[in-house]
């Protein structure tokens, strides 16, 4: 019985034309290209955000995301954004923009930008899924409730071609120099010079990005 089954399976496999995998691959590639086109929903989302003051460069597609004050957001051209990003300008209405992204920036799923002062991100940066940016900190006066503490803010800046691994946290006042690399899961509390690789909690130098294979 096992011999018959094996023979039958072999015969079925041999009966599949060799062109089937190639056709399947072509269909998958065409479907992927179709999926990357701007949908009617994305076009409406772009129009809605522009009417509310957001600046969105050509070629940047807009998935489902949350924005508290759209006029505080400026996205460059050809940026790639995944779903469930939260652009949170955590202040009262003020003139913008306070969240400024360059061209060809990638922002992974579930990233969060909690900005009160400003964040500037340069061209060609890669921000993996689940990263969080917070430019404000609470005071720690034990005589006052935590929700009544004074807030201290300082702008966050990412240079060009910066790469952050998944689940990184970048805190107030941090500057990441051009070409800096931050390992996944790191908490960045200090500025990182250009071309250096940092990782850990808190993040510290572990090498040079030039040494990466």
Q: How would you portray this structure in words?
A:
With 213 residues, this protein is an alpha/beta fold. The chain has helices spanning 2-15, 19-35, 40-51, and strands spanning 55-56, 65-67, 73-75, 80-81, 85-89, 99-101, 106-107, 112-115, 119-121, 126-127, 132-134, 136-138, 151-153, 156-158, 163-164, 169-170, 175-176, 181-182, 187-188, 196-199, 204-208. The protein has a seven-stranded mixed sheet, with no helix packed on it. It has a six-stranded parallel sheet with strand order 1-3-6-9-14-17, covered by helices on one side. A six-stranded parallel sheet has the order 2-5-8-11-16-19, with no helix packed on it. It is globular and about 75 Å long.
How many strand elements?
21
Main sheet: strands, sense, barrel? 7 strands, mixed
Q: Number of helical runs? A: 3
Give the amount of beta strand, in percent.
25-35%
Helix-strand category: alpha/beta
What series of H and E elements makes up the topology? HHHEEEEEEEEEEEEEEEEEEEEE
End-to-end Cα distance: 52 Å
Entry keywords:
6-stranded parallel beta sheet, 21 strands, 213 residues, disordered N terminus, 3 helices, globular, 7-stranded mixed beta sheet, alpha/beta
Helices and strands, with pairings:
Elements (H helix, E strand, L loop, with lengths): L1 H14 L3 H17 L4 H12 L3 E2 L8 E3 L5 E3 L4 E2 L3 E5 L9 E3 L4 E2 L4 E4 L3 E3 L4 E2 L4 E3 L1 E3 L12 E3 L2 E3 L4 E2 L4 E2 L4 E2 L4 E2 L4 E2 L7 E4 L4 E5 L5
Parallel strand pairs: 1-3, 2-5, 3-6, 4-7, 5-8, 6-9, 7-10, 8-11, 9-14, 10-15, 11-16, 14-17, 15-18, 16-19, 18-20
Antiparallel strand pairs: 12-13, 20-21
């Amino acid at each position: 019985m096992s011999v018959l089954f094996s023979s039958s399976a072999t015969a079925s496999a041999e009966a599949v034309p060799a062109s089937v995998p190639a056709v399947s691959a072509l269909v998958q590639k065409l479907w992927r290209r179709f999926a990357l086109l701007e949908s009617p929903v994305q076009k409406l989302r772009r129009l809605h955000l522009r009417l509310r003051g957001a600046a969105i460069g050509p070629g940047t597609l807009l998935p489902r995301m949350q924005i508290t004050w759209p006029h505080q957001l400026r996205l460059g051209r050809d940026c790639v954004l995944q779903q469930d990003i939260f652009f949170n300008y955590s202040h009262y209405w003020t003139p913008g923009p306070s969240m400024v992204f360059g061209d060809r920036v990638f922002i992974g799923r579930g990233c969060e930008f909690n900005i009160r002062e400003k964040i500037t991100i340069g061209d060609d940066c890669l921000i993996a899924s689940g990263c969080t940016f917070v430019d404000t900190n609470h005071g720690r006066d034990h005589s006052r409730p935590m929700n009544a503490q004074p807030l201290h803010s300082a702008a966050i800046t990412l240079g060009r071609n910066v790469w952050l691994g998944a689940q990184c946290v970048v805190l107030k006042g941090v500057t990441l120099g051009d070409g800096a690399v931050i390992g996944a899961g790191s908490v960045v509390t200090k500025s990182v010079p250009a071309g250096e690789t940092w990782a850990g909690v808190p993040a510290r130098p572990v090498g040079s990005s030039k040494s990466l294979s």
